[in-house]
Amino acid sequence: MRKPEIKKYARIVSTGISLGRTLVTNEEYEKYFGLKLPDAWRSALENRIGIRHRYVASPDQAPSDLAAEAAKMALQKAGLTIDDIDLVIVATDTPDFQTPPTVSSVHYKLGAKLKTGGFDINAACADNTIALILASQSIMLNEDVNYALVVSPYTMVRFTDPQDVTASIFSDGAGAVILGPSDEPGFITGKIIADGSYYDYWGIYIGGARPVSEEVVREKWHKLRYLKRYPPDINLRHWPGLVQETLKKAGLTADDISYYFVTQVNREMVRELMRILGQPVEKAPTIMDKYGYTGSACVFMALHDTIEQGKLRKGDYLQFVTSGVGFVMASAIFRWV
């Protein structure tokens, strides 16, 4: 029996993004959604969470459309075509349909051929990082996988109740990352943790356990529902340990990381993580002021912005730190090569 062996290393090659077609500012929120944001909430939204506007996908913009648009940008920036891609992973909790997988639509819209494999994963807003880990390992362990496309579309706005003020954090868009082969290590390591006791706190509770019916729709189970209050410190209770455990696996310290790409759900929370780690807040780019909270896409957008600003230098270490409801959390470390 042949033992698995590393065939090559994997690195991040390029990124791309796309956005919902309509920009809605906080000033325009009542006109668009029919709800006036209370003064106290709007103050927190802008000054603590960091959100001043959001993008809303048009009815004719499916998650796969946003994914394909972001993927095309990443391909163009990499100087590749879809024929160069051996694997596509769609990471999202707002798919086109329950089945078939959204990767099928993305595959078709990109004009991919039979040799380009693909699948979906869903770990809520942690699935982006998990997909990076899976794509990297696929490149490293498979002779026939050289380039992998990871793309995360997010269209949570259409699943929210517009009469719920917390819906104002959400924004629609997609982020894409292309990974490719390398002669030196790019992907270093990753780690995933989970606590399933939070499965019934909040989510979109339709599916095999609650099939769609008139009663289900009338009771709004097809919308994002908050059944229990998430502990407000849940991320800060677990992120620091997850970061340190992943760093330990890599033989690195927090000081070695040049940039942290953290779930963009709350700007002050991201900054507090940096303070706990003893790091400058500038090491954790925040983009919710530009794009709103784009869930599965958000850390890819933060990475994209950082690359576009020319901030990354060869040899920089990058750490992704993401969390999704349920809950699932993930971290991955890459070296920019």
CA distance, first residue to last residue? 34 Å
Provide the succession of SSEs. Answer: EEHHEHEHEHEEEEHEHEHHHEE
Largest sheet: 5 strands, mixed
Beta percentage is 15-25%
Using only CA atoms, what is the Rg? 19 Å
Question: For the record, what CATH class of the largest domain applies?
Answer: Alpha Beta
The mean pLDDT is 97
The CATH topology assignment of the largest domain is: Peroxisomal Thiolase, Chain A, domain 1
What is the approximate shape?
A: globular
| Secondary-structure class | alpha/beta
Please work out how many helical segments DSSP would assign.
10
CATH superfamily of the largest domain: Thiolase/Chalcone synthase
Domains counted in the coordinates: how many? 2
- Low-pLDDT segments: none
Q: Tell how many strands the DSSP assignment holds.
A: 13
Helix content: 25-40%
The CATH architecture name of the largest domain reads: 3-Layer(aba) Sandwich
- Biggest sheet, strands in spatial order? 1-7-6-4-5
